[in-house]
Amino acid sequence: MRLDVISIFPEYLAALDISLIGKARRDGLIDLVVHDLRDFTHDRHRTVDDTPYGGGAGMVMKPQPWAEALGYVDRLAPGPTRLIVPTPSGRPFTQTFARELVHEPHLVFACGRYEGIDERVYDYAATDLGWNVTPVSLGDYVLNGGEVAVLAMVEAIGRLIPGVVGNAESLVEESHEGGLLEYPVYTKPAHWEIDGVAREVPPILLSGNHSAIAKWRHQQRLERTAARRPDLLHTSQFMAADAIDITP
Ligand code: ADE
Question: Which residues does S-adenosyl-L-methionine bind (predicted)?
């Protein structure tokens, strides 16, 4: 999978050199290149922004550096391309969406700053380059720019690429896979004391009874989802099948 990230703060993306995503890049599973938008400016100050037409607060990113950067990336990696534009006004990023994006051969992430990118850039990408342009939001809050959102999206998408996460089973039972949150986990010691208070691991987990453990974990997922994210339960298939009581 080919990924390109365009940003005025390429050093923000240095985190993509480490941990599982960094290893996946070194192993050749992810071909990721970070570009500095200012390399596509032509003035002494490497200007990427200007005041908004129509007035209002803040600055808007100029179309020319963006068009040149996107055109450059298109020549580097021609072929079907999806442009992901992180913005609070985009489509919500979910696990389902990550699973959709992992099948794309080429993703380009355009990290906007200030009040956003001149809208004509998206029309250029769609019409002249033939790219599929998708604004995407990480959640209903405002970040200072797209970089943090790209770190989150690349990690969520990248770990779905076969071979990136060593134990493929750990992808199956985690939160949001199957529409439920993850069950609680424990490790040694079984009996743990702090400040004079003993805290035990639930005995069922020490029983060796694998079917009983699986049942307990499923029930924990249901209860946790009901307590923390009832919105997920109401839309999932689990309500009718498991008929748990989620009255507060
Ligand atoms: N850029 C600024 N805020 C954002 C958000 N909530 N999601 C994605 N990109 C953003």
Answer: 112, 138-143
Q: Could you tell me the residue range of the domain that residue 201 belongs to?
A: 173-242
Å from CA of 214 to ligand 1 middle:
38
* 90 and 137 both lie in a single domain: yes
Instruction: Check whether residue 78 and residue 180 sit in a common domain.
Output: no
**ipTM of model:** 0.98
pLDDT recorded at residue 240: 47
What six digits make up the tokens of 33? 């290149």
Rounded to a whole number of angstroms, the distance between the first and last alpha carbons of the chain is: 45
**Three-class secondary structure of residue 74 per DSSP:** helix
Q: Is the CB of 138 under 6 A from ligand 1?
A: yes
Which two structure tokens, joined as six digits, stand for 94? 């979910």
Are 221 and 116 within one domain? no
Please work out whether the CB of residue 151 comes within 6 Å of at least one atom of ligand 1: no
Look at residue 96 in the predicted model and tell me its pLDDT. 96
Q: 98 — phi, psi (to 5°)?
A: -60, -40
Residues 13 and 129 in one domain: yes
Average pLDDT over residues 200-228: 98
Q: Which two tokens stand for residue 88?
A: 């609070």
Q: Is the pLDDT of residue 104 over 80?
A: yes
91 alpha carbon to ligand 1 midpoint, in Å?
Answer: 11
Residue 228 has pLDDT above 60, yes or no: yes
Give me the CATH number covering residue 177.
1.10.1270.20
- DSSP letter for 201, please: P
What does pTM read for this prediction?
Answer: 0.92
Last residue of a domain, one of 133, 158, 183: 158
Cβ burial, residue 179 (10 Å; 0-12/13-18/19+): middle
CA of 223 from ligand 1 middle (Å) equals 31
146 lines ligand 1 (CB under 6 A): yes
